[in-house]
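> example.struct
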């Protein structure tokens, strides 16, 4: 069961939700001691594994039939795993969701506020966690099934930036810059939609509508390039170095569109690329803390 749940949680993608917490902590902290504040540690612990079990578990519960048509689901994404149902698996997925609710309550009541963490940030951080849980459910589960409602399937995936927003608020005591939220949201929209390109034909066979199935491969790559370019512009207005770093993504989208690189192959470059980009952003924030 443990092996199955670990595979269900997509270990390759753990840092897609845990990584933003590290970025939020790095830029929200003002002292070295705040880097290890209880709120930041609890957020990272939850979003590393339990949040992924919840997010992908809900997805797999309601996509079992659709995934049968998608070879990506049994190759590198979750090898040798099909959702096998059963009360135990559903219960564990539900518990992981409830753990997120408990985390939000702990944040809202100030239970995780250490000596260096502003108590005024409690409610704001909790709301971002709740927003993640709601969007994570609404994306896959009826009656919403946002993943089948273009362009909401793309727009709703801004949820990946919300753990970082929660961490920033919990430590800084204020909301993150609007440009950072906008840039992160646009980045996540593009990343999700790019990941849907290899799914175009399986989704069409299964009768699933997505932004990618509506646009087709080439137009979808153009959409991703535009979103990533806008994300780079938003971050660039905050810090030119961050904007320059994010320009890597529209260049990659253009490169895939104008060469014979298979998008299904390029899709698997991104866990490594995103980890490296996230590391650079995190180190930039940590440098600011240490220098300060």
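> example.seq
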């Amino acid at each position: 069961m443990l092996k199955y749940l670990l595979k269900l949680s997509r270990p390759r993608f753990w840092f897609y939700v845990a990584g933003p917490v590290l970025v939020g902590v790095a830029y929200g902290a003002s002292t070295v001691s705040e880097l290890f504040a209880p709120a930041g540690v609890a957020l990272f612990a939850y979003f590393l594994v339990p949040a992924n079990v919840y997010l992908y578990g809900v997805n797999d519960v309601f996509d079992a039939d659709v995934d049968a048509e998608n070879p990506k689901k049994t190759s590198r994404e979750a090898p040798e795993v099909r959702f096998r149902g059963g009360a135990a698996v559903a219960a564990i997925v539900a518990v992981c969701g409830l753990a997120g609710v408990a985390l939000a309550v702990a944040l809202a009541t100030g239970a995780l506020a250490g000596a260096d963490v502003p108590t005024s940030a409690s409610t704001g951080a909790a709301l971002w966690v709740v927003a993640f849980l709601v969007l994570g459910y609404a994306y896959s589960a009826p009656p919403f099934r946002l993943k089948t409602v273009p362009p909401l399937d793309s727009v709703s995936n801004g949820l990946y930036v919300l753990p970082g927003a929660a961490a920033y608020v919990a430590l800084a005591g204020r909301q993150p810059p609007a440009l950072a939220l906008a840039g992160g949201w646009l980045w996540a929209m593009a990343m999700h939609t790019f990941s849907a390109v290899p799914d175009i034909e399986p989704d069409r066979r299964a009768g699933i509508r997505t932004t990618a199935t509506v646009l087709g491969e080439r137009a979808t790559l153009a959409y991703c390039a535009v979103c990533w370019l806008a994300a780079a512009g938003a971050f660039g207005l905050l810090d030119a170095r961050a904007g320059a770093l994010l320009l890597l993504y529209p260049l990659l989208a253009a490169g895939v569109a104008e060469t014979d690189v298979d998008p299904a192959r390029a899709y698997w470059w991104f866990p490594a690329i995103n980890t490296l980009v996230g590391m650079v952003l995190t180190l930039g924030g940590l440098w600011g803390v240490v220098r300060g």
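> remarks
The CA atoms of residues 228 and 249 lie 6 Å apart.
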